[in-house]
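Entry for the shared binder. Reason: the reviewer on the internal report wants the predicted structure included alongside the sequence.
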Amino acid sequence: MKKKLHLCNSIKVTAVLLPVLLTGCSNAKEYTTDVVKTGNIAEEIEVTGNIQGEKSTTYYAAVTSPISECDLEIGDIVKANELLLTYDTSDLERVYEQAVVNAQSTENSMNGQITASNKNASLYNKAVSDSNVYMNLYAIARASNDQINQSQYEENWDIANTSKAIEGQIAQKNKTIADKTSLANEKAEALLSLVPGSEEYKNVTNELNDLKEDITNLNKDIACLNGNLASLSPQMLSPEENAKATVNNNWMQDIQRNWTESTTLKNTYEGQILNSYQKDQLKDSYDLASMSVENAKEDIVKAQSGVSAEYNGIVTNSYVSKGSVVSKGTPLFTIESSDDLKVNVGISKYDIGKIELGQRANVSIGGHNYSASVSEINRLAQVTDSSKAKVLVSVHIDDPDEYVYLGIEADVTIYAHEKENTLLIPQESYYADDSGDYCYIIKDGVIEKRYITIGVSSDEYVEIIDGLRAGDVVITDSITDESIGGRAVSK
């Protein structure tokens, strides 16, 4: 049974197949024929799609600012490097000025606190050294008096007990002084975080003053107790020993007073020294303020540059206009390339296996034809309006002109399986049955049925892989096996 293959379109065979006129006996039947010749063939896949730019860019606001100029509308043509949008930089300049002032203030505060901390650290070290000196001096004076009183221990037992009681009171008051000094340091540190003039600030200040007054009174009590202690008359001391003991006692009073003062200063200065974490916090605050200056400066530079087109194109979306206030990251407009164009077409499961990157194609728009090529094959099939999944294939248009419009529908012919200089026969001479592909030829004036191996087919020609040779005459008229063996000539 005769079977015709109806494919999409094909590139026309470059070699012209000329009919051959055969002569024979006068009783031979005439048939329309053609000869097997070499030529070019391709399987054509015809589809439609819409013209799109190969590049599509949505521009976003680089800064938060009002728009001073932007008159883009959908369909506007833009040129590469053309300034499309400008910003009003007034607000950004004010933000920059504020950031500079804040950074300077932060730096001054950091330097001031670190300088004060370093000074307090130096004073603290001196107070520690003085405290240690006074402690040693007191120990020496006390040891001297102990040596004087050692020989009179038994006689001075009662006096010694009285002295110890007084010393106990002094020790207790010294402990109380230390506790109150520590509490006073906490109050002084708390004042740094309070607002001067506030009620809480006043309360803490009063508490601190009360503590200082208590410490002063305790020191007076200690001085008084030391006086009482010094006034105890040792028994049975020689005038020389008594004089020396008196000197030692007076010396110890002076030493203890200075010792107490240096201890108080040590505790005070220690609470006003910044630790490493506090210094790091100050540095971090300064770094953040400096970063704010840099960010504000960068925003001004970006705003002053405005927004320019990266390439020649057409505006496909516009989201803002002059006077709008945009935030950083707000979409502004979308531009599609007008120089680099493509047609996106859907290829069915029957044809996708024939499509390869770089294949030649033709794009037809309103009677204008453009050479093209397959530039991209999407790996994800999409369901079309006909509920059939198709693979999106992009066809690049080589040299678009003013007749190529974005968004318009175009007819696309993709030339798949192109063959050059291959044997060809007309589609009209090709048949197929259960045994294979075949055709009818006239050999030596007699009709023969010849089985063949075919390759690429188009709507006009069939490629011959095996079974025929160049110059063989094939019959293009309708014919059946009943004519095999009959005499025939070409019309």
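Summary line for the report: The first strand starts at residue 29 and ends at 31.
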